[in-house]
């Protein structure tokens, strides 16, 4: 196993499902990561969750066998540990105010030219560019969940994103064996614009009593080739994250198909958010990382 150090050093903001998945992907490919989260409970769970995901990725054969794992540092604040990052991934909740705060803090801590990679699932990159002092450094990269297993990523170039930012972000992703597909900036981009209203429609069908959760997923799998079904996908994304993304999409496009349906909203109110809480559209018996 090679121990040669990676030229990349990553800071990840947010130790939720997506943040730990991206961290696992990076660590498993030999990239050292500083993982930041203000939630002490999330941070306390993060190391075990990341290492569990790395093990899962190894079992699935998605990590290089000849590369030592990158070092993982966890911290509750943006500080000196983050200052030498060669790239930053912002993976906080899909709430504009939270993303703006996180991006503003990290932009002040890293040198000019450090790519600020947002995992937003719906907010236009050019809208977010107003939140940072150096708009040229901001780029969107939409990872699919689980990020440590799915190797295709959607990269969104905003109107003010610099060519050097695109090149550096692409080099990082390719070092982690990711296939990058670049799209133009727009609310929801491609994947969220198509997937999230479809999940919303599936939940609406269940809420109206047309079919059960299981039957909707089985029809989408058996007839239309969806890998697991839209409602099981919702549980994997996190129903609260899905609702936040739909709200962003509805507000910015006016598309009524993106207005979160009552069944999704009810599950959020009840705290049944999917795999991470142990129950969503399906019952998982216990909370999963």
Automatic annotation (TrEMBL):
Coiled coil: none annotated. SUPFAM superfamilies: 6-phosphogluconate dehydrogenase C-terminal domain-like, NAD(P)-binding Rossmann-fold domains. Pathway: Lipid metabolism; butanoate metabolism. InterPro entries: 3-OHacyl-CoA_DH, 3-OHacyl-CoA_DH_NAD-bd, 3HC_DH_C, 6-PGluconate_DH-like_C_sf, 6PGD_dom2, NAD(P)-bd_dom_sf. Residues 188-284 form the 3-hydroxyacyl-CoA dehydrogenase C-terminal domain. Pfam families: 3HCDH, 3HCDH_N. Keywords: Oxidoreductase. Residues 10-185 form the 3-hydroxyacyl-CoA dehydrogenase NAD binding domain. Belongs to the 3-hydroxyacyl-CoA dehydrogenase family. This is Methoxymalonate biosynthesis protein. It comes from Actinoalloteichus caeruleus DSM 43889.
């Amino acid at each position: 196993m090679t121990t040669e150090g990676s030229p990349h050093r990553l800071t990840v903001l947010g130790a939720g499902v997506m943040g730990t998945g991206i961290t696992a992907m990076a660590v498993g490919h030999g990239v050292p990561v500083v993982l930041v989260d203000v939630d002490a409970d999330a941070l306390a769970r993060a190391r075990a969750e990341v290492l569990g995901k790395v093990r899962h990725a190894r079992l699935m054969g998605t990590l290089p066998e000849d590369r030592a794992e990158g070092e993982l540092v966890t911290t509750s604040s943006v500080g000196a540990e983050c200052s030498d990052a060669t790239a930053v991934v912002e993976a906080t909740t899909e709430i504009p105010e939270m993303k703006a705060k996180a991006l503003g803090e990290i932009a002040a801590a890293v040198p000019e030219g450090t790519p600020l990679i947002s995992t937003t699932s719906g907010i236009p990159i050019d809208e977010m560019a107003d939140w940072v002092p150096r708009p040229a450094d901001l780029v969107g990269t939409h990872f699919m969940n689980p990020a440590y297993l799915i190797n295709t990523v959607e990269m969104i170039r905003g109107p003010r994103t610099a060519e050097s930012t695109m090149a550096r972000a692409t080099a990082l992703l390719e070092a982690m064996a990711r296939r990058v597909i670049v799209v133009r900036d727009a609310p929801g981009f491609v994947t969220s614009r198509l997937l999230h209203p479809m999940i919303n429609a599936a939940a609406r069908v269940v809420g109206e009593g047309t079919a059960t959760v299981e039957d909707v997923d089985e029809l989408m799998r058996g007839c239309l080739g969806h890998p697991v079904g839209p409602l099981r996908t919702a549980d994997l994304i996190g129903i609260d994250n899905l609702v936040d993304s739909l709200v962003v999409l509805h507000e910015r496009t006016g598309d009524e198909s993106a207005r979160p349906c009552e069944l999704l909203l009810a599950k959020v109110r009840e705290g049944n958010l999917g795999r991470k809480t142990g129950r969503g559209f399906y019952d998982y018996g216990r909370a999963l990382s």
